[in-house]
Amino acid sequence: MPPPPDERGQPPRRRRMLALPAVCPCEAIAPAALLASLLSLTADAAGLQAGALPALRGAAREAVRIAGLLHAFLDAVRGGPLPDEAVLGLSELHVALQKLRLLLADCARKGARLWVLMNAETAASELRVVMGSVATAVDALPEGAVAGAASAEARELAALASAHAWRAAARLRPDPEDGRAARGVRSVLARFAGGATPDAEDARHVLDRVGTATWSGCAEEAAFLEAELLERLETGGEDDNDLVLIAGLLAFLVYCRVILFDRIDDPSKAAAAAAPVMTRPPARCAAWINPEALRCPITLELMTDPVTVATGQTYDRASIKKWIKSGCRTCPVTGERLRSAELVPNVAARGIIEQLLLSRGVPLQEPSGKHRCAVDKTAAPFGAAAAGGVRLAVAFLVARLSRGTPEQQKKASYEARKLSKRNVFYRACLVEAGAVPWLLHLLSSGDASVQDNAVAGLLNLSKHPAGRRALVESGGLGLIVDAVSVAARVEARQNAAAVLFYLSSSPEYCEEISRIPEAIPTLVHLARGGAYRGRKNALVSLYGLLQCADARGRAVSAGAVAALAGLLLGSPAAAAEGDDDLALDAVALLARIAEQPGGAHAVAASSELVTRLVDFLGESASRSAKEHCASLLASLGRHGGDGVLALLGKLPGLMPALYALIADGTPQAVKKARWLVNEIHRHYEQRQAPAAARTPAVAGDHRVIRV
């Protein structure tokens, strides 16, 4: 079942930072069970190393000390009989300790150091409230009831914990250094907003305060803020003032990452060194969790982004989206027709999967796809500070690309790759700053990683109209075509093919690319074999280039028909990969090639390929695939003449597939299928007319119904 919606009709979302929900134990809970849960909560809180926190170190140290006192007290109480009268007071303490654990976990959260620093006042206020609740709950414990279960020393521990909690509730404040560091951040953001370069020492002081001394630590902080920004956009918080602050802090971290660090360190080692240490052992997977039940019914792989469809079944988002996109409108498990294509995030299932993976030491990746659309489509930043910080960082980056040392260029190319992937505004800034010509220059680098970064950066920038224009005006078409065939790494060749796809989306660039002699043969060669991603990029790029009629003849000359036939007829590479969408792409390309007589003759020359196309028409569940296939067969019949029509008429699976398409196909597919049926009928009528006058009809003659 999907998770219940909240009051706005939306599926429940993850807890926001510094939000402290708590559940009160039920009235019928056994005292022993409640006490065991309290011991777990206090152990969690007392196990935090407060010195590793970026802010509120003094306050957190006091909270950890109080949690330790409570743990010792509760451990002593557990040894004796606990009356039912103590349940109410212990329940109140349980609620307060839940909030304390959440608050300390937020303050110690990896990647959230800068955000906690900027919200230190809010966190301190919440901590004072929680400490007051703890003190009140301890004082509310019935003295007579607890006295029978605890020693005199334990009662002294409770009194001491209460006194410390009351003192903390009255006096806890952020550390003075927290305030100075926060003011330093606001000073830097103000300079960003004015277009001025901030003092590097001010920025370095802030990073030192939050314990972010490495490039990877800075990147981790930026990743957290980006996720926080995305969450607020998804929940409709576009008017939230925090958006401006989050975007400004994100720009601050990008600026620091680009300018203050000369090298990129090992992220895994840096994260291990910077993470706050908890003394509790790692979480264990609950015994009742069945990992097999968490596999997607379509792929049989563990789900990473579980969603629920209208029938109540849960699938991995990517798999069910691909299923629906292919034209299937039924539930793969139940066979019921899907009344809606809406996908509801299954938060409960995701939480269980997270618990399973964390128990095995495997992190769960954040979902992608439409969940990133809000940020990815952001064409303007949130505030002048964010815009100014990004522009300063990008200007420095382009300077390093143009005249830096080889090591500086290597780091700058990686930064350009990362930033260009972030959103539209970052891409626009990079294009305006002149990054495209220098990334093209780095395509000839002897360092494979630099070359790979340059191609990936150009791929991201080619998604922006100004980036495509800059790439063409800088003379980059030939360089990109060369990279498809001669780049040092397979990933770079695949990305270069994807760049050609984005460039071919513009008709004027499409024609210019198709005139490069090596362009189409290079893509055909890439489509013949190799990894799935490379062949996929080559196919979609070819499809874009074949918008130009002149390019279709060049594709035939380059052996495109044979390469595409290999995908459909089960070449070793295709069989090993097992990706049906490559076959769909191959049919779409063949349909475009066959629109001209030369292309149609090249396809019709292989009777085995024609037979496979007919089988594909009957087997495919995709409406778009059926439309492309019908269009291709119609083109063969139009340009191939009676020979092709005779061949098609002999294939037993063709007519049932065409009639099914006429009954339930797209308007364009119905038109093509009806035309082909009538042409085959006409061909047989003409061929059999002279014989009909001399020979009586024989039972079992091939008959075709005109439609």
From TrEMBL:
GO terms for biological process, alphabetical: protein ubiquitination; regulation of seed germination
Listed pathway(s): Protein modification; protein ubiquitination
Sequence ranges of the ARM repeats: 434-476
GO molecular function: ubiquitin protein ligase activity
Keyword Flavoprotein: no
Top class in the EC scheme: transferase
Entry superkingdom: Eukaryota
InterPro entries assigned to the protein according to its UniProt record, in alphabetical order: ARM-like, ARM-type_fold, Armadillo, RING-Ubox_PUB, Ubox_domain, Znf_RING/FYVE/PHD
Listed EC numbers: 2.3.2.27
Protein name according to UniProt: RING-type E3 ubiquitin transferase
Source organism of the structure: Panicum virgatum (Blackwell switchgrass)
